[in-house]
Amino acid sequence: MEYVERFLEHSAEFTKEEFIELLKLAGNEAAVKRLADEAVRIRKEVYGTAVFIRGLIEFTNYCKNDCYYCGIRRSNKNASRYRLSEEEILACCANGYALGFRTFVLQGGEDPYYTDERIVGLIRRIKAAYPDCALTLSIGEKSYESYRAFREAGADRYLLRHETATEDHYKSLHPKEMLLTVRKKCLYDLKELGYQVGAGFMVGSPGQTLEHLAEDLLFLRKLQPQMVGIGPFIPHHDTPFADEQAGSVQLTLFLLSVLRILLPHVLLPATTALGTADTAGREKGILVGANVVMPNLSPVENRKLYELYDNKICTGEEAAESREGLSRRMEAIGYELVTDRGDYRE
Ligand code: SAH
Question: Domain count of the chain?
Answer without folding.
Answer: 1
